[in-house]
Amino acid sequence: MYTNVIKNSAIPLSSHHQLTLQTNFLRFIDEHIHLNDDNDFFATLVSTRIQTINHLMPLQTDNLYQCITSDYAQEINGIVPLEKLDPYYIEIEKQAIALFGNILYCWAEYESYSIIQRVIKHPLTKNNTAHLIYNDEDITEVVPQIEEDKRLFITPYCDLPITLSNAITLKTIENFVKKKHCYELLYFLAMAINGEYVISYQYDKHTLFPKLLTSAHL
Questions:
Q1: Per the UniProt record, which residue ranges are transmembrane (predicted)?
Q2: Whole-number Å distance between alpha carbons of 89 and 41
Q3: Which of 67, 90, 119 is the C-terminal boundary of a domain?
Q4: How many CA atoms are closer than 13 Å to the CA of 190, on its beta-carbon side?
Q5: Nearest to residue 96, comparing CAs of 115, 121, 84, 113?
Q6: Do residue 99 and residue 188 come from a single domain?
Q7: Residue 52 above 70 pLDDT?
Q8: How many structural domains does the chain have?
Q9: More confident residue, 37 or 2
Q10: Residue 45 contacts residue 2 (beta carbons within 8 Å)
């Protein structure tokens, strides 16, 4: 059943652009997660795959990215069954590898996708007053609890203004998880992006909301 759904939903006509294929696949996974209340879907899949790799080839690296992308793992990922998991898990893993290169990158893309989709479906701009302010100097401040900050910011990661916590989460996924291969962060992303941060931002004359420039956890 799941194989057919994946083929129909995640793999549209071959003339579609790669980005369309990826977006449709992420939408399919998002629907599965919400319909089945399976928020740990990726964590379960990745952890089980790591166990399989380490069982067949002990003494692998503890680094998640190096383990999943190793030459040996390429002979296992999407091929060797995922023990105790339903067959659709490996079908999804196969499609993730085909579209994103590996399951970790797909997981990171999904986390970004889910945040952006929530913003699109429930835009916050109508509840936030934009201020037409122009200041070409950077503003730096300490935010005690970013998860409680209601301001909206412009970022390179989303076309719509988003909350500070979402902005920092997307920044973390792009700059640390994907670029530096710190995929371990995905297991506790929500816990990692909270608390006290120092941020710098700037009001641009072309936008109604401040542009987030930098952020760092304190």
A1: none
A2: 9
A3: 119
A4: 5
A5: 113
A6: no
A7: yes
A8: 2
A9: 37
A10: no
Backbone dihedral region for residue 78 (phi beyond 0: left; psi -120 to 50: alpha; all else: beta): left
Q: What is the pLDDT of residues 59-111, one digit of tens each?
A: 668 899 999 999 999 999 999 999 899 999 999 999 999 999 999 999 999 99
Range of the domain at 189: 126-217
Predicted local confidence at residue 11, as pLDDT: 44
124 band by pLDDT with thresholds 50, 70 and 90: low
Residues 69 and 85 in one domain: yes
- Nearest Cα residue to 68 out of 44, 51, 91: 51
CB contact set of 210 (below 8 Å; sequence gap of 6+)? 139, 151, 153, 154, 201, 202, 203, 204
Q: Are residues 170 and 141 in the same domain?
A: yes
Number of residues that this document lists for the chain: 218
User: What pLDDT, on a 0 to 100 scale, did the predictor assign at position 61?
Assistant: 81
Determine which helix (DSSP H) or strand (DSSP E) holds 55, and give its type and residue range. helix 41-56
Q: Of 99, 119, 139, which marks where a domain is finished? A: 119
pLDDT for residue 30 is more than 80 = yes
DSSP symbol at 40: T
Q: Give the whole-angstrom CA distance, residue 21 versus residue 16.
A: 7
Contact 5, 87 (CB under 8 A): no
Phi, psi of 210 (to 5 degrees): -65, 150
Most confident of 87-96, 123-132, 147-156: 87-96
Same domain membership, residue 145 and residue 92: no
